[in-house]
Amino acid sequence: MTQVAYDKTLDFHIEKHTSILSMHNMHYHHTHELYYCLRGEREYFIGDEFYRVTEGDIVLIPREIIHRTGGKVTTRILIYFSDVFLSRFFTDETLATLPLYRPLIFRPEENLRTYIEAELNKMMGEYSENGDNYSPVLASRLIHMLFSIFTSANNYIATPYSDRRIGQIVRYINDNYSEINDIKQIADHFFISKYHLCRTFNRCLGIPLISYLNTVKIRAATDLMKNEKLKLTDIATGCGFNSSSYLCKVFKAEKGVSPTEYRKNLRSKK
Predict the structure, then answer these.
(1) Strand 12-19 vs strand 67-81: parallel, antiparallel, or unpaired?
(2) Cα gap 195→160, rounded to integer Å
(3) How is the chain split into domains, by residue range?
(4) What is the residue-wise DSSP string for 108-119?
(5) Considering only the top CATH level, what class is 165-269?
(6) Gap between the Cα atoms of 51 and 49, Å rounded
(7) What is the reported pTM?
(8) pLDDT band (50, 70, 90) for residue 2
(9) pLDDT per residue over 209-251, tens digit each?
(10) Is pLDDT of 186 > 90?
(11) Please, what is the average pLDDT of the chain?
(12) Which of 116, 126, 159, 167 has the smallest set of CB atoms within 10 Å of its CB?
C-alpha cells in the first residue's frame, strides 16, 4: 500500500534538478523547503490546498507539512533548511520575525526575481565547492532572501482546483483526527459513500485515505512523546488510535522504529 513518506534530509542542502515524473508521493520532512521554479509548470498540494506554480514562482513549505507535487516537466532549485541550521547563526528574536510556520506561494516582481535567481546560483556554487564550510555565508544569503520575500509584494494569484472537496476533507482530518475512529465517520460528515470518498481521495492525492489519516495521527503522536510523563496508552487515545498496539504498528511502519526506541532517541539528543 502506498503511504505518506517521511523523507530524511540534511539540515541544509541546495540542489538544481529537472523533475520528469507526473506525480510524487505525499511526504514530509523535518526541514523547511524552499522551491524556485526555473522553467515549466507544476502542481502542489500543501497542507489542505492545491496550488499551480510556473516559471519564477517560489514555494515555501514549513517543516512537518504533508505535501505532494506533480505535473509537467519542471526545472527547479530546491533548498532544505532546518530550524537547527538557522539557530546556529541567528538569534531566536530574529528567527521569530520569519513566518515559517505557514505555506507560501510567492510570485516576485521582475527585479526581485532577478536578485533571487542570482543568489540561488551563488549558493549552489558555494555549497558545491565548499559544503558545510561555507555555512555562515549560505545562512546569510538565505535569511536575506527570506526577508526580501516576506516583505515584498506578492503577485501570485491562486487558481481554483476542480474538486474543492478534497481540501475540505483534508482540513477536516487535520482538525478532527483525534476523534476519527474510521473512514465511514469522514464519509458520513460529507454525506458521501465510503467507496466514493476513498476512490476520490486516492485519485486526487495518489494515496489511500487511511494512510493519510494514520500519518496525521503519527505526527501528533511524535509531539506528545516529547512529554515523558505520558504513557503510550494515553498517547494512542489522544491521537485517535483504538489501542497502543495499533499505534506501535503504524508508528514503526512509518518511522522505522518503535515508539519506545523513538523516545530513547529523543532522550539521547537532549
Answers:
(1) antiparallel
(2) 25
(3) 5-150, 165-269
(4) --HHHHHHHHHH
(5) mainly alpha
(6) 7
(7) 0.80
(8) low
(9) 998 999 899 989 988 988 888 899 999 999 999 888 999 998 8
(10) yes
(11) 89
(12) 159
Read off the amino acid at residue 199.
R
Query: What cell does 145 get?
Result: 532572501
Picking from 175, 198, 249, 201, the residue whose alpha carbon sits closest to that of residue 68 is 201
Using CA of residue 148, residue 149, residue 151, residue 156, what is the dihedral sign? positive
Pairing mode, strands 27-28 and 5-6: parallel
**Where is 252: in which H helix or E strand?**
helix 244-255
Look at residues 9, 11, 54, 51 and name the one whose alpha carbon lies nearest to residue 27: 9
CA dist., res. 29 & res. 6, Å (int): 6
Tell me the one-letter amino acid at 54: T
Same fold, 5-150 and 165-269: no
pLDDT 10s digits, 98-122: 999 999 999 999 999 999 999 999 9
Predicted confidence at residue 161, as pLDDT, reads 61
| Cα–Cα distance, 143 to 210 (Å, whole number) | 38
The cell 513518506 sits on which residue? Answer: 5
**Amino acid 23: pLDDT:** 52
Could you list the beta-strand ranges (E) of 47-85.
49-54, 58-61, 67-81
CB neighbour burial string for 25-49, b if at least 16 within 10 angstroms, e if fewer = bbbbbebbbbbbbeebebbbbbbbb
Angle at 227 between CA 221 and CA 230, to 5 degrees: 75
Sorted by sequence, the CB contacts under 8 Å of residue 66 that are 6+ apart come out as: 4, 26, 27, 28, 47, 212, 215, 216
Q: Which amino acid is at 33?
A: E
Tell which CATH architecture fits domain 5-150.
Answer: Sandwich (2.60)
Tell me, what's the pLDDT at 21?
Answer: 60
Which cell is 161 given? 482546483
Helix (H) or strand (E) run with residue 12 in it = strand 12-19
Do 77 and 123 touch, CB atoms closer than 8 A? Answer: no
